[in-house]
Amino acid sequence: MSTTTTSTISKKSAAADPGQGPEGAAKRRRMTVPGFTARKGAEPLVCLTAYTAHVARICDRHADLLLVGDSLGMVIHGLPNTLGVTLEHMIMHGQAVVRGADQALVVVDMPFGSFEESPEVAFRNASRVVKETGCTAIKLEGGVEMAPTIRYLARRGIPVMAHIGLMPQAMNTAGGFRAVRDEALWDAVIADAQAVEAAGAFSVVIEGVAEPLAARITEAVSIPTIGIGASAKCDGQILVFEDMVGLFPRVPTFVKRYGAMEAMMDDAVSRYAAEVRSRAFPGEEHTYKPKAG
Ligand code: KIV
């Protein structure tokens, strides 16, 4: 990275840099938890994952909520699944995203092993995440079984986004990443949604469920449902940024690619390598001349 791009991302420089946003785009006030919840049934909520300050800065111009998802273990750190993600990973990336975003609501995922043991352990770890990152809320996977923990956190000042349906942290008990399509399982997922709402979650991510189930959950709860692989019958949508911009060659069917970043990056790197080898780079214009005088 060049010295011109390593400067600290500040709110002032973001506003002054014409490269950081559409000309004249009005800054929105930071999305709050009550503001987010109030959007239930209204204009669809736009949510994206972000793991770094630079990506956060780009997404912040357009999104209502940025999630520092534990998917960062796979996307950034090359882990095979999310189970190896630590609280330290989440805090480090959470800090970066909070530095890059000043309009969207920033939510940080609680990694596997950091909240399941007891509400008290969850509070200890979640309060660390909030204190050390400056994020507004946390997300955790689980329905009925996590309701007491959600209640404990929400009553003590930590807003919670729940995550039900396909829960990647439960991959070993579920036998893999299994979308909820079998109708026999639907009532349990609806009960999960109602339990997290009653416990005080301000929103719920629904992952990998059949469309009629998503519709029934969205109808059954008064908090916004945010879908990923859960159809348009949700109050908002979330995708993993890297999937959405085409940074991965293989993505699940529910992902729509809005860019072809992998191909662009591969092309840039291959042209750079060729020009270094042929000595076409660096050119005159990239070369310091001795100081005159
Ligand atoms: O970890 C993550 O990125 C998530 C989203 C896919 C919802 O949980």
Structure in words:
With 293 residues, the protein is α/β, with parallel strands linked by helices. Helices cover 38% and strands 13% of the residues. The chain has twelve helices and eight strands. The chain has an eight-stranded parallel barrel, surrounded by six helices. The longest helix has 18 residues. The relative contact order is 0.11. The N terminus is likely disordered. The site of 3-methyl-2-oxobutanoic acid has 11 residues, from loops.
Brief descriptors of the model:
12 helices, 8 strands, alpha/beta, single chain, disordered N terminus, 293 residues, binds 3-methyl-2-oxobutanoic acid, 8-stranded parallel β-barrel
Helix content: 25-40%
Number of distinct beta strands: 8
Unreliable stretches covering 5 or more consecutive residues: 1-20
Q: First CA to last CA: what distance?
A: 31 Å
Q: How can the largest sheet be summarized?
A: 8 strands, parallel, barrel
Portion in beta strands? 5-15%
What small molecules are bound in this structure?
3-methyl-2-oxobutanoic acid
The helix-and-strand class reads alpha/beta
SSE series: HHEHEHHEHEHEHHEHEEHH
Number of helices: 12
Rg value: 21 Å
Query: What integer is the average pLDDT?
Result: 92
